[in-house]
Specification:
CATH topology of the largest domain in chain B: D-Maltodextrin-Binding Protein, domain 2
Largest sheet of chain A: none
Distance between the termini of chain A: 31 Å
Shape of chain A: globular
CATH topology of chain A: MetI-like fold
Number of helices of chain A: 15
CATH architecture of the largest domain in chain B: 3-Layer(aba) Sandwich
Order of helices and strands of chain B: HEHEHEHEEEHEHEHEEHH
Oligomer: heterodimer
CATH class of chain A: Mainly Alpha
Number of strands of chain B: 10
Helix content of chain A: over 70%
Radius of gyration of chain A: 23 Å
Strand content of chain B: 15-25%
CATH architecture of chain A: Orthogonal Bundle
Largest interface: A-B, 37 and 33 residues
Number of domains of chain B: 2
CATH superfamily of chain A: MetI-like
CATH class of the largest domain in chain B: Alpha Beta
Helix content of chain B: 40-55%
Radius of gyration of chain B: 24 Å
Strand order of the largest sheet of chain B: 2-1-3-10-4
Chain lengths: 274, 268
């Protein structure tokens, strides 16, 4: 060991030594608080009947529907949410702060209320819904598309906030340089801005997907509950809870296992384990 | 030296974490089991009776609660209205309830099976009606109209009492109805009718009455085959003890019967 290496080691030690207990203790408490309920699920899980319950076709159907709708909702959020975040971060216009506050409404609105609000707008007698039905014969409530709408409504703010944060943190000089070289604003967005904030978009999409996967209130209110069409895993869990708490635990564990597996693999792959 | 110090620090962190977890766990079990046991009896919150009742009893029981408070000065009645199945789960998990009024014998059985109540009494019955939105756009007037694929129907999920009753009535009529949705409780089913999202739904007569004219109810003969009995019982470990029995007596009295009949319930 050379003297410099030792010095560096000592310095790292010093850095580690300053890890303040004031932060470590609440951090440990916070982790325990988040993880303990999961332990409760694992302890009460009916392990002996687990394989039989998992093989039930309704479980797989609900799981498939959950994965498909959450992914579709994430796609919708990306197509609409990334431009929205860009406008909020890069275009100054009067009332921008108000618009930013409006974007977060689904975060504070109880999802059930969000579902009723969607019905009032997109329902059969809703402001836009009645027109949709008259003109195209399209009705969204009680359809799989309705599930996607409900999930996208609730999950979009997560994507917008995350992408807007990434855009604000990105160095504006790259975009300015591209502009001085004669690139149009659309080209800059496509060739400079998007690659620059890609990690932020992926992180936002992951968050958005996870929220959509767990969505319950808006979905059951707007899209109803019918196996194979609108019954996602959280809905199946809720109804199983009424009569068979053990089945509900099994369903929750499946949902948890699948989402943790997907989120963990995504993080390693795209966000560099950050 | 370095790895050693490091690992010791990790051990310390681990020790704190497990300590916190153990503490939290102890807290959890302490709070959970202590409530209905000694702690609950030592502090009966003198003069409070806690009633867990099916959501469909909300209007009638709120009125009876006021009457009970008026007749017993200093006594407060607290209600927890909700799905009978959920309430039954809460009671078996140790929720501090004095009285349980359920919308079906099956949900009451969850509680009596756990020896938390005995000898429940059927105090009212509830019958299904076809609920249609104002104006009845799909021109529904009897049960077999619901089998028409053009009519959008909402039913309660089979797991909740109103769904079980609906399935029984449809089976009695020999009808196969494909609903667009199976709702999580009777109020959610009714909401879909109020908003006009469905053309018809099977809900309780009392819910149609409580909606205050926003939906109309249609009686149908097959409802006779699917009458729901509502049992009530004072709970064995009732923290309020005697008050619990007195509240049940009020529900069973002539006064109670009048209020419940007015809300649309049938009396046994």
């Amino acid at each position: 060991m050379t003297a410099t290496a030792e010095r560096r080691g000592a310095r790292e030690q010093g850095r580690l030594g300053r890890t303040p207990w004031v932060l470590v203790v609440p951090a440990a408490c916070g982790l325990a608080f988040l993880v303990l309920p999961l332990a409760g699920l694992l302890v009460r899980a009916p392990w002996s009947t687990l394989p039989r319950r998992l093989a039930e076709p309704q479980v797989l159907e609900a799981l498939r529907l959950s994965l498909v709708t959450a992914s579709a909702a994430t796609l919708v959020c990306l197509v609409l949410g990334v431009p929205l975040a860009w406008v909020l971060a890069r275009v100054s216009f009067p009332g921008r702060r108000l618009v930013r506050a409006l974007v977060t409404i689904p975060l504070v609105l109880p999802p059930v209320v969000g579902g009723v609000a969607l019905l009032l707008v997109l329902g059969r007698r809703g402001l836009i819904g009645q027109w949709l039905e008259a003109a195209f014969g399209v009705t969204l409530p009680f359809t799989t598309a309705g599930v996607v709408v409900a999930e996208a409504f609730v999950a979009m703010p997560f994507l917008v906030i995350s992408v807007e944060g990434a855009l604000r943190a990105a160095d504006p000089r790259y975009e300015e340089a591209a502009a001085t070289l004669g690139a149009s604003r659309w080209t800059i967005f496509r060739r400079v801005t998007l690659p620059l904030v890609a990690p932020g978009i992926v992180a936002g999409a992951v968050l958005c997907w996870a929220r959509a996967l767990g969505e319950f209130g808006a979905t059951i209110t707007f899209a109803g509950n019918f196996p194979g069409r609108t019954q996602t895993m959280p809905l199946a869990v809720y109804l199983a809870l009424e009569t068979e708490p053990e089945a509900a635990i099994v369903l929750s564990l499946v949902l948890l296992a699948v989402s943790v597996a997907i989120l963990a693999s995504l993080r390693d792959r795209w966000v560099g384990g950050a | 030296m370095t790895p050693f110090r490091k690992s010791r620090r990790w051990l310390a962190v681990l020790a704190v974490t497990t300590g916190v977890m153990a503490g939290a766990a102890a807290c959890g079990t302490g709070g959970g089991s202590g409530r209905p046991g000694q702690a609950g009896q030592a502090t009966p919150a003198a003069g409070t009776v806690t009633v867990f009742a099916a959501a469909s009893l909300t209007g009638a029981f709120t009125e009876l609660g006021k009457a009970f408070e008026a007749a017993n000065p200093g006594v407060t009645v607290r209600f927890n209205f909700g799905s009978s199945a959920t309430l039954a789960q809460q009671i078996t998990q140790g929720a501090p309830a004095d009285v349980f009024a359920a919308a079906s014998p099956a949900t009451m059985k969850t509680v009596t099976d756990a020896s938390l109540a005995s000898a429940p009494i059927t105090f009212v019955r509830n019958k299904l009606q076809i609920a249609v939105p104002a104006g009845n756009p799909a021109k529904v007037d009897e049960l077999k109209d619901l089998a028409d694929p053009k009519v959008k129907v909402a039913l309660c999920a089979a797991q909740v009492p109103c769904g079980a009753a609906a399935a029984k009535a449809l089976a009695a009529a020999g009808l196969k109805v494909t609903p667009v949705t199976l709702e999580q409780d009777v109020k959610a089913t009714l909401t879909k009718v109020v908003l006009g999202e469905v053309d018809a739904a099977l809900v309780y007569r009392t819910d149609v009455l409580a909606s205050g004219g926003e939906v109309s109810g249609i009686d149908f003969p097959e409802a006779r085959q699917a009458v729901n009995d509502y049992p009530i019982a004072a709970l064995a470990k009732a923290p309020a003890g005697d008050l619990a029995r007195r509240f049940v007596d009020l529900v069973l009295s002539q006064r109670g019967r009048d209020v419940l009949a007015e809300a649309g319930f049938e009396l046994p």
